[in-house]
Design a protein that fits this description.
Length: 325
């Protein structure tokens, strides 16, 4: 309804539509007017704006300090005490951990160094024994072929000596008739004294040489019967009696002489070897004494290191222990 209609129709009675609109009308907010009537001013005696006034009101509310009670003071003291204990515990733990770790590293390094040195010596000795055993086996394997070669060379040298001696003696026998006479005398002397009726087998060339030295009468008086034997080499003889016989052939005489020579050489080598072994005994004893002395020094050094480590650990424990009240 317009204003004109309202002024003409008095008194007014609202129609249903207007009544419905009145029902939905809201009461206006009057708090803004109340806030605008705030009498607080600033330093220039001017009213504060709404935002500044709200902030000032909140600041006044925050500045309100309640008085502390005994419980509050006790709680604050206990909290400060707990905080101090916790802080001291953390600082003490950090300091003790740092010092203990450093000391532990030093002690562990020294102990590990000593144990590592000892273990290294033991491992080195074991490895040295193994290498020594392997070297001994290799030397034995090398010496076996050498020993066989030595034996073969010895036999070949013996045969060479026999051949050379035989060649020299053959020349001597051919040019010197005294050789067969000396062999005959040696063979007869080797028989027992009561031997008689001796049969002497000679090379046909030597029979003539013996008969030139002894005539038939001397041969009969001596009881010698000369028999030519082509198998007997010139310069040798075989003397036989009823009970015994003597072989003074050329090969047998050479073999006997060489065996006697080799026996003398072996005796000389054995004497030199025994003398060398006797001279090596003091050297081996000295080496053994040196090794024992080094082992004793090593054990003494390890013992000193262990004692020093124990002393340092004890000193550390004494320093770290809390003082008595």
């Amino acid at each position: 309804m317009t204003k004109t209609a309202y002024s003409r129709n008095r008194p007014y009675s609202p129609d249903p539509d207007a009544s419905e609109q009145v029902k939905h009308w809201h009461t206006p907010d009057l708090t803004a007017d109340a806030r605008s009537q705030d009498t607080r001013t600033n330093a220039l005696n001017m009213h504060l704006p709404e935002a500044t006034a709200a902030a000032a009101e909140e600041q006044e509310q925050e500045l309100v300090i309640k008085p502390l009670t005994a419980d509050d003071i006790e709680q604050m003291r206990q909290a400060a005490h707990d905080e101090g204990i916790l802080q001291g515990k953390e600082e003490g733990f950090a300091k003790g951990y740092s010092e203990g770790r450093e000391q532990g590293q030093q002690d562990g390094f020294k102990q590990g160094q000593a144990e590592g040195k000892r273990q290294g010596l033991e491992d080195g000795a074991t490895e040295l024994d193994t290498l020594r055993a392997e070297l001994s086996v290799l030397l034995d394997q090398l010496q076996q072929p050498l020993a066989k070669i030595d034996n073969r060379v010895e036999q070949e040298l013996l045969q060479l000596c026999l051949a050379m001696a035989k060649a020299v003696i053959n020349v001597e026998v051919t040019t010197n008739p005294k050789v067969i006479l000396q062999a005959l005398q040696e063979a007869v002397s080797a028989l027992p004294l009561q031997s008689s009726n001796l049969i002497i087998k000679l090379n046909p060339a030597d029979v003539a040489s013996v008969k030139r030295h002894y005539n038939d009468t001397e041969l009969t008086e001596r009881g010698w019967q000369l028999r030519p034997e082509p198998l007997v080499e010139q310069g040798g003889c075989l003397v036989e009696s009823i009970s015994s016989s003597v072989d003074r052939s050329l090969n047998q005489r050479i073999q006997s002489s060489l065996e006697h020579f080799l026996q003398l050489a072996e005796t000389a080598d054995s004497s030199e070897h025994a003398a060398a072994e006797s001279s090596d005994i003091p050297t081996q004893q000295a080496q053994s004494n040196d090794a024992q002395s080094k082992d004793a020094q090593s054990e003494h050094s390890q013992l000193k290191d262990t004692q020093a480590n124990d002393t340092q650990v004890k000193d550390t424990q004494v320093k770290d222990s809390p003082p008595n009240d």
